[in-house]
């Protein structure tokens, strides 16, 4: 006989029902055809991972902010480089324009 595989969404639904305490774990186990020990494991896993849920979100936000800051710095550096090049080109080309106007 093949082992049953349950989706994370299904497991979350069952754990929520357990935490609501509207029905006992044995009632939920018989209702869904799952052993009580399995439900206990899912509940334990969910409660262990609950603090990490908020920690992971904070880390993800911090990572995105860091990436945006790095990209912003790179863009500012590029703007500075291009501004310097533009001013250098203006200095080189401006005298030539004056020379052309003198000959006309």
Automatic annotation (TrEMBL):
Q: Which Pfam families match?
A: HTH_Tnp_1 (PF01527)
The protein's matches in Gene3D superfamilies, at most eight in alphabetical order, are given as: Winged helix-like DNA-binding domain superfamily/Winged helix DNA-binding domain (1.10.10.10)
Q: Which SUPFAM superfamilies match?
A: Homeodomain-like
- Protein name in the entry: Transposase
> Which InterPro entries does this UniProt record tie to the protein?
Homeodomain-like_sf (IPR009057), Transposase_8 (IPR002514), WH-like_DNA-bd_sf (IPR036388)
A Gene Ontology biological process annotation?
A: DNA transposition
Entry GO MF terms = DNA binding; transposase activity
């Amino acid at each position: 006989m093949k082992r049953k595989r349950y989706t994370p969404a299904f497991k979350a639904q069952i754990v929520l029902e357990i935490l609501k305490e509207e029905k006992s774990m044995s009632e939920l186990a018989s209702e869904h055809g799952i052993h009580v020990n399995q439900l206990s494991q899912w509940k334990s896993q969910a409660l262990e991972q609950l603090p990490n849920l908020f920690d992971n979100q904070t880390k993800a936000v911090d990572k995105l902010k860091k990436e945006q800051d790095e990209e912003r710095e790179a863009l500012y550096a590029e703007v500075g480089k291009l501004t310097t090049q533009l001013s250098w080109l203006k200095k080189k080309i401006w005298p030539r324009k004056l020379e052309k106007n003198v000959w006309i």
